[in-house]
UniProtKB/TrEMBL annotation:
Function comment: Catalyzes the insertion of molybdate into adenylated molybdopterin with the concomitant release of AMP.
InterPro entries: MoaB/Mog-like_dom_sf, MoaB/Mog_dom, MoeA-like, MoeA_C_domain_IV, MoeA_C_domain_IV_sf, MoeA_linker/N, MoeA_linker/N_sf
Protein name per its UniProtKB record: Molybdopterin molybdenumtransferase
Cofactor: Mg(2+)
Superkingdom assignment: Bacteria
Recorded catalytic activity of this chain's protein: adenylyl-molybdopterin + molybdate = Mo-molybdopterin + AMP + H(+)
This protein's UniProt keywords: Magnesium, Metal-binding, Molybdenum, Molybdenum cofactor biosynthesis, Transferase
Residues covered by the MoaB/Mog domain: 166-315
Species annotation: Streptomyces durocortorensis
Length: 411
């Protein structure tokens, strides 16, 4: 549902210079703007030769990378050549310097092994022809894609703009610094959500801490021009849980109002009215920012982040949906009677012929972050639980796995 909502509008396209395009999604396929290589190139330092040897050469003369075209090589002659230099017309092979003997006195080049026509020449167009598709639309621009694009002649890339996300942290009990005291606790979600959403490709503003103030929340939602607003806390029905009443007052459409998952069951997805679409003034469904309401319990918030915010952002940014993958779980994992559980797990390589698997981590309560901080992903545990040796679906975390310090966290 979240992925479909994100894909509902046509993705916009902007052109960004290479040094600003990293992490964006390609809005169009990249076709080569040139043949690669764009000329017949020497693959080695050595000699360009024409015809069978031995070959006559001129002492001192040589071809270097970065120079213009050389004159054609007459049959029976050789010229020194550097790796990356243009191979002169009529060259039949390149001989590596260590495989040749140059008799400088006589100006003759001899070879110590058979020469195969075309050896150590990278022919023009070996990697691609001009116009050939190199990278499909929807690809994430990685450092390697940037390198390929530069090699193929690009100065700028057509990309989907990063989705813009505003983060609003709700709760009067939250401290931005220092130790917990007098019933006040540290805000664990503000510091976590910005970097996490950036790792998902978003441009993030905030977090803004609004306390438990319905008016401030309503003002912030009305003023936002983001693609997505992420709120934390206030999703339940407690005395100061303002998210539902404020969404109602703003005429927002609730697309997801609670999910049968633990932790995280009060998570919600809504769409606000656009600024020119105040309630009653315009017909039709809301067209303003999306809102993902994350529950206040920190691991419950992670659950909503992975299952609502991540697919929604992927849809807005034009990223293809991740293929779900499954892994064997080592250990019985208890389930909730009727809801799905998300449980932090780490990947483990199979030892002594055993298969690779995941192991569940302790400290997986809704208010705890100790398990997820050590985890590689969240295992999706069906209602009723799973037995050791069962395959479970894994929701990945958007950073590199494998930390050596999970000891003590295993169940
Ligand atoms: N009567 C019921 N009460 C609750 C239910 C329920 O089904 N019936 N569900 C519980 C579950 S599960 C969750 S999760 C929470 C969700 O509540 P809210 O989204 O309204 O969150 P808050 O009440 O504001 O906070 C819950 C909890 O999390 C702490 N918190 C909040 N924000 C942060 C933060 N930024 N960093 C760290 N900790 C945070 C807050 O202090 C509370 O302890 O509702 C249950 N109640
Ligand atoms: O499901 Mo709550 O969302 O347990 O923490």
């Amino acid at each position: 549902m979240a992925a479909r909502a994100g894909r509902a509008g046509p993705p916009a396209t902007i052109r960004l210079p290479l040094d600003r395009a990293l992490g964006h999604v390609l809005a169009e396929a990249l076709g080569a703007l040139t043949d690669l290589p764009s000329f017949d190139t020497s693959a080695m330092d050595g000699w360009a030769v024409a015809g069978p040897g031995p070959w006559a050469f001129e002492t001192g003369a040589g071809l270097l990378a970065g120079r213009g075209p050389a004159a054609a090589l007459p049959d029976g002659t050789a010229v020194r050549i550097a790796t990356g230099a243009r191979v002169p017309p009529d060259t039949t092979a390149v001989i590596r310097s260590e495989h040749a003997h140059a008799d400088e006195d006589k100006g003759m080049l001899h070879v110590r092994r058979p020469v195969v026509t075309g050896q150590d020449i990278r022919p023009r167009g070996q990697e691609c022809r001009s116009g050939e598709q190199l990278v499909p639309a929807g690809t994430i621009v990685t450092p390697a894609v940037l390198g390929l694009a530069a090699a193929a002649g690009y100065d700028a890339l057509p990309v989907v703009p990063r989705p813009r996300v505003d983060i609003l942290v709700l709760g009067d009990e939250l401290l931005a610094a220092g130790l917990p005291h007098d019933g006040l606790i540290r805000d664990a979600l503000g510091p976590m959500l910005g970097p996490w959403l950036r790792a998902l490709g978003a441009e993030v503003s905030g977090p803004r801490r609004l306390g438990d103030d319905a008016g401030a929340l309503q003002d912030a939602l009305t003023a936002s021009d983001a693609d997505l607003i992420v709120t934390t806390g206030g999703t339940a029905a407690g005395p100061v849980d303002h998210v539902h009443p404020v969404l109602d007052a703003l005429g927002a459409e609730l697309l997801v109002d609670g999910v049968a998952v633990r932790p995280g069951h009060p998570m919600l997805l809504a769409r606000l009215r656009a600024s020119g679409q105040a309630e009653g003034q315009a017909e039709g469904p809301p067209e303003g920012p999306y809102l993902v309401g994350l529950p206040g319990n920190p691991l419950a918030a992670v659950s909503g982040l992975l299952t609502l915010a991540e697919p929604l952002l992927a849809g807005i940014a034009g990223r293809p949906a991740q293929d779900p993958y499954r892994a064997l779980v080592h250990a019985d994992v208890p389930g909730h009677p009727h809801d799905t559980r998300l449980v932090p797990v780490v990947h483990r390589a199979g030892r002594a012929g055993g298969r690779d698997h995941v192991a569940p981590l302790r400290y997986n309560g809704p208010a705890m972050l100790r398990g997820i901080a050590a985890a590689d992903g969240l295992a999706v545990v069906e209602p009723g639980g799973v037995r050791s040796g069962t395959e479970v679906e894994i929701l990945d975390l958007p950073w590199a796995p494998a930390t050596p310090w999970t000891e003590g966290c295993f169940t």
